[in-house]
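Sample A.
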Amino acid sequence: GVQGDVNGNSGQVSFGKPLMTSSFLSQKLDGDESGDSSENSPSVIESPPNNVSFNSADLPLYDKVAPIPRLLSLRQDAQKRGGDDGTTTDSEDQYSSHNSSQADLMNSILPPIQSQSIRTAPHKEEPDFEELERYFPNHQMSIFIGTWNMHSEKDVPLLVEEFLMPPQCEYLQDMYVIGTQECTPHKREWEVTVQATLGPTHVLVRSESLGDIHLIILVRREMIWIIRDVQSSTVACGAGGVMRNKGAVGIVLTIFGSSLLFITAHLRAHTTKVKERNIDALRIASSLDFSRYHVKQPSGDDLSDCTENVDCVFWSGDLNYRVTCERESAVKAIQSNNLEPLIKSDQLLEQLRDQAAFRGFSEAPIRFPPTFKFDPGSSEYDTSNKQRVPSWTDRILYKSRQDAITPQFYHYCPSLTFSDHRPVFGVYLVTLKPSPISSTLRATGWFDKRAYARGMKRRQMYPQSRSPGNEESSLGNRKLKQSSFVLKAVNTPVKKVMANHKSSIVCSVM
């Protein structure tokens, strides 16, 4: 089974100081970082001041994530070149009018570059392990994959801590990929919700949608300079192959020398439509078009399956495969916490074993109850006349070259109850390959400044009482208060809620 400790691993593989999830529950931003919603918001991270202390324990959270992984070593190198006291040697004094002083070098975040090293250095296009290891010493990054059928809910929750910061995660992950099906029509508000929940350390680098299928990617701010060749594509699989209520959205990108593809899909419903779901999956894999990632076959033709063109693939979504046992026996098995009979009758696992669909993909062991179908607003499985059999329709699959993906845990979020589905998430470690510097320089450093500014403004709604140490913000109370909002106890669109966030209504939610 998957028993890996992502908390410990995430703390080791992420460059910079690990980001504690508990700190975000009580953190409230001050000053321009949170309040500036203008388009002039900085799109790059400010350098630390010259007098910054390098004892990370003394730094505030916001400074701990500043891009300074090399600054301390650079100062030490400069000191070695000058002397024990940090002063320049006699041989350098004659050039003092042309060169920066030793003190300036030590206070600069940019390393000094000797001209002689440039004259003699040959041009080479070799993998740059040094740059990769500055970001990820173990060559591994952590990725949070989430999928959620939102039941076309119009009211967007203000925050989704229970989903993105589950109890299993002591640290924030390096990348968050969130796919939604039957997404709220207020997709932009949903993006702001995710940005606000993760806080100032992460930024939105890409979003794409097809009808009500939606996919977003957020990364740690420092990573915007190593992400390149980002592309997106969509495929409709609804009625006639054109309706956008079913289909898939894909986003592909490269980090250092590794290409990663993320797909979220909504496949056909109903227990009897297994073959149709398999056909749709094959169509999605052959129709998602990423021109920068085409791979030629020996015949010269493009490789048709996009999942074969990249190093790592994560395929998530409401795949709609069902459990085929009787409803009564399924409910009894869930109540007794004996999921084995349901797992044996799961349609998707059967298709994976027979390689009828999703060839080459794997799934982490399922150790959580079925996520569909609930009565909206409750924890009861379908009590309508249809009496659907509880099933794991919401899934996360993965495949990679050279076993580059290691699942850490795979679970669901029971506390977000306004949909008839429950969110499902997984945390994975991905081993990255190095790349030549010339390739990494193609990164644009782009992120969504508007979503960032609005997310930081929404974080001002965090009262200090949300701190985990406060009795009023225990996990149970947080679930109750979150549910009181999403269950329409406050039946107000999020735009109106934000415009009147000082009202007693929002105070009762918080």
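Sample B.
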Amino acid sequence: LLLLAINHLPKHSTNLSKEVMPFPDFPYPAHLPTFLKHRDVRQYLEDYSTAFGIHEHVSFGSTVTDIRPLPAAAARDVRMRVNGDHCHMATGGVMNVGPGADTQSQSLVSRGSDARNVTQEFQIDNMARGLSELSSGRERDCPQHHQHSPIAEINTVSFNGSAGTDQSSDSSVWNGSDFSNTPRPLADIGPWWQVSYRTTTAPTSSSSTSSATVEETRIFDAVIVCNGHFSEAITPEVEGMEFFQGTVLHSHNYRRPEVFHDKSVLVVGAGASGQDICQDVAKVARRVFVSTSPEKRITSPLPENIQRCDRMARVDEQGRVVFSDGQVVTVDAVLWCTGYVYSHPFLHDSCGVAVDNGRYVRPLYKHIVNAENPTMFFIGLPKLIVPNLLFHCQVLFVKAVLDRRHRLPSPDVMRQWNVEDLAERQHQGLSRERGHEMLARQWAYNADLAACAGVDSPYPAHVRARYEHILEGRANRLATYREEIFENSAMYQRLIANWRC
């Protein structure tokens, strides 16, 4: 399940149009404005979840605390047992993992399902199709064939075995043996996964004020990490910041400009948030300074009370801001519009995934597959993209891997792909920290994923045209681009004509 973190900005509109934003098979309602409000996006996600039956697969109030690959020695201690009409996982001591990082991760795990109505074979469905079709495999009665089928994000586990038998195995989990001596669905791709999570339930009655917390550990064939990267803010370390006595706020917590009335405000960063917030604050502030490196300066005309500045270098002992060109200003507030880090505190070191300086996740094949343990996948890491479209293509790719329509290369080849992809970006002047940025690369990337999945490209020509028109508008007409009629633009007509040729 993909969870989007959207700041509650009641007066603000999205910076992409509704024609660009939806999942390919679930458009926004036609009556909505071109650029949407927070409430519109929230309602869309709720409608999407209802249409595809996602809610029934989600355990709300759950926090994933630890994920790690299950080693062969631990696999031998796992037993599948039958308890009445239900199947459950019984684990040996090595499986009883205590809580890890105390994180409010958006990764969710379901509580499992009734064993009388589960699929025999591993099933996973893509995000655009939702999760309502997971029961398309053959059903078996629990006493003969049973399996436990919880879902972690869009993750499914299946185990086959016979009631009352000892299903331990002396074989490694990588060699195709599972607990019942029947080939495990993904044994030739990667390991099983041990997932520990904490579920907190609300009080059971109006007179009760205490909640209950249950900690559980379960085993999965595959893990798909979809916890996003718009929640853990980057706060730059600036020399002398302890001398600053004014307001300090990250864009993640920005809501309304009124608190900056008649104040002098420094906005650090000029990405999508910085562009919108500096204009919003300028409506009420006395003066707004926008600090960026020279190559990232806003090129569009801006209101007269907004001044472009060089990179923030330090704060002097008088609490004044000093820029890299030597300019000194006094401000009442600093607004960090500096983005977010990738954070996966629930991943154990044995997962084999590293995050360099919070900005670059490796080693990943196609920005998705954990090359060290290829039954772990990541959805949504790329930046500067059309989000839901790219997520859709990524999930199509993962689905093709899991149902064996696409075979992954060897781990060595996947690691090399990661090295070469980063080297190509660095050759073009991008730092390692920008290793997941896409922009123009996203179209070939999406097409490649769709080809690997054996499906046609999922986006019509107008999506790219609209996206590039919006980028051009933000670069040159930041204050008015949302008011333009896209179909009347020369860019739209030119791009459509070129694609038709």
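B remarks: The two ends are 38 Å apart (CA to CA). The longest strand covers residues 193-201.
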